[in-house]
Design a protein that fits this description.
Elements (H helix, E strand, L loop, with lengths): L3 E6 L3 H10 L5 E7 L14 E2 L2 H6 L4 E4 L6 H10 L3 E5 L6 H14 L3 E4 L6 H11 L6 E9 L11 H17 L3 E9 L9 E8 L4 E7 L6 E8 L2 E6 L4 E7 L7 H7 L3 E6 L7 H13 L9 H19 L5 E2 L1 H8 L9
Parallel strand pairs: 1-2, 1-4, 2-3, 4-5, 5-6, 7-10
Antiparallel strand pairs: 7-11, 8-9, 8-15, 9-10, 11-12, 12-13, 13-14
Helix pairs in contact: 3-4, 4-9, 5-6, 6-9, 9-10
Organism: Kribbella koreensis
Pfam families: GFO_IDH_MocA, GFO_IDH_MocA_C3
Protein name: Gfo/Idh/MocA family oxidoreductase
Protein backbone atom coordinates (compact mmCIF):
# COMPACT_ATOMS: atom_id res chain seq x y z
CA UNK A 1 0.00 0.00 0.00
CA UNK A 2 1.32 3.42 -0.97
CA UNK A 3 2.17 5.90 1.74
CA UNK A 4 -0.28 8.70 2.49
CA UNK A 5 0.70 12.02 0.90
CA UNK A 6 0.69 14.71 3.59
CA UNK A 7 0.80 18.48 3.33
CA UNK A 8 1.56 21.13 5.95
CA UNK A 9 0.45 24.74 5.92
CA UNK A 10 2.02 27.06 8.49
CA UNK A 11 5.78 26.81 9.11
CA UNK A 12 5.99 28.77 12.34
CA UNK A 13 6.83 27.63 15.87
CA UNK A 14 4.37 24.73 15.85
CA UNK A 15 4.65 24.09 12.12
CA UNK A 16 8.33 23.24 12.39
CA UNK A 17 7.54 20.49 14.90
CA UNK A 18 4.74 19.14 12.73
CA UNK A 19 7.17 19.07 9.80
CA UNK A 20 9.68 17.10 11.84
CA UNK A 21 7.12 14.48 12.87
CA UNK A 22 5.47 14.22 9.45
CA UNK A 23 8.88 13.81 7.85
CA UNK A 24 9.55 10.67 9.90
CA UNK A 25 6.04 9.22 10.34
CA UNK A 26 5.70 5.63 9.21
CA UNK A 27 3.31 5.20 6.29
CA UNK A 28 3.33 8.93 5.47
CA UNK A 29 5.29 11.07 3.03
CA UNK A 30 5.43 14.82 3.60
CA UNK A 31 5.20 16.00 0.00
CA UNK A 32 4.20 19.66 0.18
CA UNK A 33 4.50 22.62 2.57
CA UNK A 34 3.17 26.16 2.43
CA UNK A 35 3.53 29.45 4.24
CA UNK A 36 3.07 32.90 2.68
CA UNK A 37 5.81 34.14 5.01
CA UNK A 38 8.32 31.59 3.77
CA UNK A 39 10.31 28.97 5.64
CA UNK A 40 11.83 30.99 8.51
CA UNK A 41 12.88 27.92 10.47
CA UNK A 42 14.30 25.98 7.53
CA UNK A 43 12.05 22.94 7.86
CA UNK A 44 11.06 22.36 4.21
CA UNK A 45 13.93 19.89 3.77
CA UNK A 46 14.23 20.49 0.04
CA UNK A 47 10.51 20.78 -0.68
CA UNK A 48 9.31 23.88 -2.52
CA UNK A 49 7.56 26.30 -0.16
CA UNK A 50 4.12 27.09 -1.58
CA UNK A 51 2.24 30.27 -0.77
CA UNK A 52 -1.31 29.06 -0.18
CA UNK A 53 -3.62 26.13 0.41
CA UNK A 54 -4.69 25.96 -3.23
CA UNK A 55 -1.11 25.14 -4.24
CA UNK A 56 -0.96 22.45 -1.56
CA UNK A 57 -4.16 20.88 -2.85
CA UNK A 58 -2.79 20.97 -6.40
CA UNK A 59 0.21 18.94 -5.19
CA UNK A 60 -2.14 15.97 -4.75
CA UNK A 61 -2.15 15.56 -0.99
CA UNK A 62 -4.31 13.05 0.88
CA UNK A 63 -4.38 15.05 4.09
CA UNK A 64 -3.10 18.29 5.54
CA UNK A 65 -1.86 19.62 8.87
CA UNK A 66 -3.12 23.18 9.43
CA UNK A 67 -0.77 25.13 11.71
CA UNK A 68 -1.57 28.71 10.71
CA UNK A 69 -2.83 31.44 13.10
CA UNK A 70 -6.36 30.85 14.36
CA UNK A 71 -7.88 33.65 12.30
CA UNK A 72 -7.11 31.73 9.07
CA UNK A 73 -8.44 28.33 10.16
CA UNK A 74 -11.93 28.66 8.70
CA UNK A 75 -10.90 29.74 5.22
CA UNK A 76 -8.19 27.10 4.88
CA UNK A 77 -10.17 24.26 6.48
CA UNK A 78 -13.18 24.83 4.24
CA UNK A 79 -10.97 24.87 1.14
CA UNK A 80 -9.47 21.54 2.15
CA UNK A 81 -12.87 20.00 2.86
CA UNK A 82 -14.27 21.12 -0.46
CA UNK A 83 -11.26 19.56 -2.20
CA UNK A 84 -11.83 16.24 -0.41
CA UNK A 85 -8.66 16.51 1.68
CA UNK A 86 -8.62 15.21 5.26
CA UNK A 87 -7.21 17.70 7.77
CA UNK A 88 -6.00 18.08 11.32
CA UNK A 89 -6.32 21.67 12.52
CA UNK A 90 -4.28 23.11 15.38
CA UNK A 91 -6.27 24.12 18.43
CA UNK A 92 -8.42 26.04 18.89
CA UNK A 93 -10.57 24.85 16.01
CA UNK A 94 -11.57 28.47 15.30
CA UNK A 95 -11.79 31.87 16.91
CA UNK A 96 -15.56 31.63 17.42
CA UNK A 97 -18.18 28.93 17.78
CA UNK A 98 -19.91 30.06 14.59
CA UNK A 99 -16.71 29.61 12.57
CA UNK A 100 -15.97 26.29 14.29
CA UNK A 101 -19.46 25.10 13.35
CA UNK A 102 -18.83 26.12 9.72
CA UNK A 103 -15.71 23.97 9.65
CA UNK A 104 -17.43 20.96 11.23
CA UNK A 105 -20.35 21.20 8.79
CA UNK A 106 -18.03 21.54 5.79
CA UNK A 107 -16.14 18.36 6.68
CA UNK A 108 -19.32 16.44 7.39
CA UNK A 109 -20.82 17.50 4.07
CA UNK A 110 -17.68 16.51 2.19
CA UNK A 111 -17.37 13.16 3.94
CA UNK A 112 -13.74 13.73 4.91
CA UNK A 113 -12.07 13.29 8.29
CA UNK A 114 -11.24 16.30 10.41
CA UNK A 115 -9.51 16.51 13.78
CA UNK A 116 -8.28 19.18 16.18
CA UNK A 117 -4.73 19.33 17.52
CA UNK A 118 -5.47 19.28 21.24
CA UNK A 119 -2.09 17.74 21.97
CA UNK A 120 -2.55 17.43 25.75
CA UNK A 121 -4.86 14.47 25.21
CA UNK A 122 -1.83 12.55 24.00
CA UNK A 123 0.38 13.43 26.95
CA UNK A 124 1.36 10.13 28.65
CA UNK A 125 0.46 11.48 32.11
CA UNK A 126 -3.10 12.36 31.06
CA UNK A 127 -3.51 9.16 29.04
CA UNK A 128 -2.58 7.14 32.12
CA UNK A 129 -4.77 9.33 34.34
CA UNK A 130 -7.84 8.77 32.19
CA UNK A 131 -7.37 4.98 32.23
CA UNK A 132 -7.07 4.95 36.02
CA UNK A 133 -10.16 7.14 36.41
CA UNK A 134 -12.11 4.87 34.05
CA UNK A 135 -11.04 1.90 36.14
CA UNK A 136 -12.51 3.55 39.21
CA UNK A 137 -9.21 3.83 41.09
CA UNK A 138 -10.16 7.22 42.57
CA UNK A 139 -13.77 6.37 43.36
CA UNK A 140 -16.13 9.32 43.02
CA UNK A 141 -14.46 12.36 41.48
CA UNK A 142 -14.98 15.56 43.47
CA UNK A 143 -12.85 18.21 41.82
CA UNK A 144 -10.43 18.91 38.96
CA UNK A 145 -8.03 21.83 39.16
CA UNK A 146 -5.55 22.89 36.49
CA UNK A 147 -2.73 25.44 36.48
CA UNK A 148 -1.24 26.52 33.15
CA UNK A 149 1.11 29.43 33.64
CA UNK A 150 4.19 30.79 31.89
CA UNK A 151 5.84 33.75 30.14
CA UNK A 152 4.12 35.70 27.38
CA UNK A 153 4.47 34.06 23.92
CA UNK A 154 5.16 36.90 21.48
CA UNK A 155 4.16 34.63 18.58
CA UNK A 156 0.47 34.74 19.60
CA UNK A 157 -1.20 37.88 18.29
CA UNK A 158 -4.75 37.03 17.24
CA UNK A 159 -6.32 35.51 20.39
CA UNK A 160 -6.09 35.81 24.17
CA UNK A 161 -5.03 33.34 26.79
CA UNK A 162 -8.48 31.70 26.89
CA UNK A 163 -8.51 30.50 23.29
CA UNK A 164 -4.79 29.83 23.12
CA UNK A 165 -4.12 28.12 26.46
CA UNK A 166 -7.30 27.59 28.46
CA UNK A 167 -8.77 25.50 25.62
CA UNK A 168 -6.20 22.84 26.59
CA UNK A 169 -7.70 22.66 30.08
CA UNK A 170 -11.30 22.82 28.89
CA UNK A 171 -10.71 19.90 26.54
CA UNK A 172 -8.65 17.73 28.87
CA UNK A 173 -11.03 18.24 31.82
CA UNK A 174 -14.07 17.09 29.87
CA UNK A 175 -12.06 14.30 28.25
CA UNK A 176 -10.55 12.68 31.35
CA UNK A 177 -13.92 12.73 33.13
CA UNK A 178 -16.06 12.03 30.05
CA UNK A 179 -18.46 14.72 31.22
CA UNK A 180 -19.19 18.06 29.50
CA UNK A 181 -19.17 21.41 31.27
CA UNK A 182 -22.48 22.54 32.73
CA UNK A 183 -21.48 26.07 33.76
CA UNK A 184 -18.50 28.41 34.08
CA UNK A 185 -17.67 31.63 35.87
CA UNK A 186 -14.52 33.65 35.21
CA UNK A 187 -12.45 36.69 36.07
CA UNK A 188 -9.81 38.06 33.70
CA UNK A 189 -7.03 40.64 33.62
CA UNK A 190 -5.33 42.65 30.86
CA UNK A 191 -1.78 43.52 31.95
CA UNK A 192 0.31 43.34 28.77
CA UNK A 193 -1.31 46.22 26.89
CA UNK A 194 -3.03 43.99 24.30
CA UNK A 195 -6.71 43.91 23.49
CA UNK A 196 -6.97 40.30 24.63
CA UNK A 197 -6.96 38.91 28.16
CA UNK A 198 -3.65 37.55 29.41
CA UNK A 199 -4.88 36.07 32.70
CA UNK A 200 -8.01 34.08 33.45
CA UNK A 201 -9.31 32.38 36.59
CA UNK A 202 -12.21 30.02 35.89
CA UNK A 203 -14.46 28.04 38.18
CA UNK A 204 -17.01 25.64 36.80
CA UNK A 205 -19.09 22.54 37.20
CA UNK A 206 -19.39 19.51 34.94
CA UNK A 207 -22.67 17.82 34.18
CA UNK A 208 -21.72 14.94 36.47
CA UNK A 209 -21.35 17.39 39.38
CA UNK A 210 -17.54 17.60 39.42
CA UNK A 211 -16.29 21.04 40.50
CA UNK A 212 -13.53 22.55 38.35
CA UNK A 213 -10.98 25.33 38.73
CA UNK A 214 -8.57 26.62 36.09
CA UNK A 215 -5.84 29.22 36.48
CA UNK A 216 -4.23 30.27 33.20
CA UNK A 217 -1.91 33.15 32.43
CA UNK A 218 0.92 34.52 30.31
CA UNK A 219 2.30 36.60 33.18
CA UNK A 220 4.31 34.09 35.19
CA UNK A 221 8.12 33.79 35.09
CA UNK A 222 7.88 30.05 35.77
CA UNK A 223 6.21 27.49 33.53
CA UNK A 224 3.61 25.23 35.11
CA UNK A 225 1.32 22.59 33.61
CA UNK A 226 -0.53 20.71 36.35
CA UNK A 227 -3.80 18.81 36.54
CA UNK A 228 -5.01 17.67 39.98
CA UNK A 229 -8.00 15.33 40.29
CA UNK A 230 -9.33 14.91 43.81
CA UNK A 231 -11.76 12.18 44.71
CA UNK A 232 -13.05 9.69 47.19
CA UNK A 233 -9.77 7.82 47.65
CA UNK A 234 -7.19 10.58 47.27
CA UNK A 235 -5.77 12.71 44.48
CA UNK A 236 -3.98 12.19 41.16
CA UNK A 237 -1.47 14.80 40.02
CA UNK A 238 -0.52 14.91 36.34
CA UNK A 239 2.43 17.10 35.36
CA UNK A 240 2.33 17.42 31.60
CA UNK A 241 5.69 19.21 31.43
CA UNK A 242 7.46 16.09 32.67
CA UNK A 243 4.72 13.58 31.74
CA UNK A 244 4.68 12.34 35.34
CA UNK A 245 1.62 10.94 37.11
CA UNK A 246 1.49 10.53 40.86
CA UNK A 247 -1.16 9.47 43.35
CA UNK A 248 -1.63 10.68 46.92
CA UNK A 249 -3.83 8.22 48.78
CA UNK A 250 -6.05 9.06 51.70
CA UNK A 251 -4.45 7.60 54.81
CA UNK A 252 -5.68 4.79 56.98
CA UNK A 253 -3.21 5.46 59.81
CA UNK A 254 -4.19 8.06 62.38
CA UNK A 255 -1.80 10.92 63.12
CA UNK A 256 -0.83 10.65 66.78
CA UNK A 257 0.73 14.11 66.92
CA UNK A 258 -2.28 16.22 67.90
CA UNK A 259 -0.91 19.58 66.72
CA UNK A 260 -0.32 18.16 63.23
CA UNK A 261 -3.53 16.14 63.11
CA UNK A 262 -5.51 19.29 63.86
CA UNK A 263 -4.52 20.78 60.51
CA UNK A 264 -4.44 17.68 58.33
CA UNK A 265 -8.14 17.13 57.61
CA UNK A 266 -8.11 14.01 55.44
CA UNK A 267 -5.19 11.98 56.70
CA UNK A 268 -2.16 11.40 54.51
CA UNK A 269 -1.51 8.01 53.00
CA UNK A 270 0.99 6.55 50.58
CA UNK A 271 2.30 8.57 47.65
CA UNK A 272 3.10 6.78 44.38
CA UNK A 273 4.78 8.11 41.25
CA UNK A 274 3.96 5.75 38.43
CA UNK A 275 6.51 4.46 35.94
CA UNK A 276 4.81 5.02 32.58
CA UNK A 277 5.99 4.90 28.99
CA UNK A 278 6.55 8.39 27.60
CA UNK A 279 6.17 8.56 23.82
CA UNK A 280 6.22 12.04 22.29
CA UNK A 281 2.66 13.45 22.40
CA UNK A 282 2.94 15.13 18.99
CA UNK A 283 3.99 11.89 17.33
CA UNK A 284 1.16 10.01 19.07
CA UNK A 285 -1.29 12.65 17.86
CA UNK A 286 -0.13 12.27 14.25
CA UNK A 287 -0.17 8.49 14.46
CA UNK A 288 -3.78 8.60 15.65
CA UNK A 289 -4.85 10.85 12.80
CA UNK A 290 -3.00 8.75 10.22
CA UNK A 291 -4.77 5.65 11.50
CA UNK A 292 -8.16 7.42 11.39
CA UNK A 293 -7.60 8.21 7.70
CA UNK A 294 -6.72 4.57 7.10
CA UNK A 295 -10.01 3.51 8.69
CA UNK A 296 -8.46 2.03 11.82
CA UNK A 297 -10.01 2.33 15.26
CA UNK A 298 -8.26 5.19 17.00
CA UNK A 299 -8.83 8.14 19.32
CA UNK A 300 -8.78 11.55 17.66
CA UNK A 301 -10.19 14.88 18.81
CA UNK A 302 -13.16 15.22 16.50
CA UNK A 303 -14.34 18.49 15.02
CA UNK A 304 -17.52 18.26 17.09
CA UNK A 305 -15.44 17.97 20.24
CA UNK A 306 -13.23 20.85 19.14
CA UNK A 307 -16.35 22.91 18.51
CA UNK A 308 -17.70 22.14 21.99
CA UNK A 309 -14.43 23.36 23.51
CA UNK A 310 -14.72 26.67 21.63
CA UNK A 311 -18.29 27.04 22.93
CA UNK A 312 -17.05 26.67 26.51
CA UNK A 313 -14.18 29.11 25.86
CA UNK A 314 -16.66 31.69 24.56
CA UNK A 315 -18.72 31.25 27.73
CA UNK A 316 -15.57 31.85 29.81
CA UNK A 317 -14.85 35.08 27.92
CA UNK A 318 -18.50 36.13 28.26
CA UNK A 319 -18.47 35.52 32.01
CA UNK A 320 -15.27 37.52 32.46
CA UNK A 321 -16.81 40.42 30.51
CA UNK A 322 -19.82 40.30 32.85
CA UNK A 323 -17.74 40.41 36.05
CA UNK A 324 -17.87 36.70 36.75
CA UNK A 325 -21.54 36.03 36.06
CA UNK A 326 -22.16 32.30 35.81
CA UNK A 327 -22.88 31.12 32.26
CA UNK A 328 -24.83 27.90 31.69
CA UNK A 329 -23.35 25.70 28.98
CA UNK A 330 -26.04 23.17 28.14
CA UNK A 331 -28.16 25.55 26.11
CA UNK A 332 -25.13 27.10 24.43
CA UNK A 333 -23.71 23.73 23.37
CA UNK A 334 -27.06 22.44 22.15
CA UNK A 335 -27.61 25.65 20.21
CA UNK A 336 -24.40 25.16 18.24
CA UNK A 337 -24.26 21.37 17.98
CA UNK A 338 -27.97 20.68 17.58
CA UNK A 339 -29.98 18.38 19.82
CA UNK A 340 -27.14 15.84 20.12
CA UNK A 341 -24.47 17.29 22.36
CA UNK A 342 -22.49 14.07 22.74
CA UNK A 343 -19.46 15.76 21.18
CA UNK A 344 -19.29 18.08 24.16
CA UNK A 345 -18.48 15.15 26.40
CA UNK A 346 -15.16 14.64 24.61
Amino acid sequence: MANLRAGLIGLGMMGRHHARVLGSLEGVDLVAVADPGGDKHGVANGLPVHENVEQLIAAGIDYCMVAVPTQYHTEIAKALAEAGVHAMIEKPLAGSSSEAAEIAKAFEAAGVIGAVGHIERYNPALQALRVRLENGELGDIYQITTRRQGPFPARIADVGVVLDLATHDIDLTAWVTQSPFASVSAQSAHKSGRQYEDLIAVTGKLQDGTVTSHLVNWLSPMKERLTVVTGERGAFIADTLTADLSFHANGTVQTAWDDVAHFRGVSEGDMIRYAIAKPEPLKAEHEAFRDAILGKETDIVTLQQGLATVVVAEAVIQSAAEDGKSVALTDAVNGVLGTDNAGAAQ
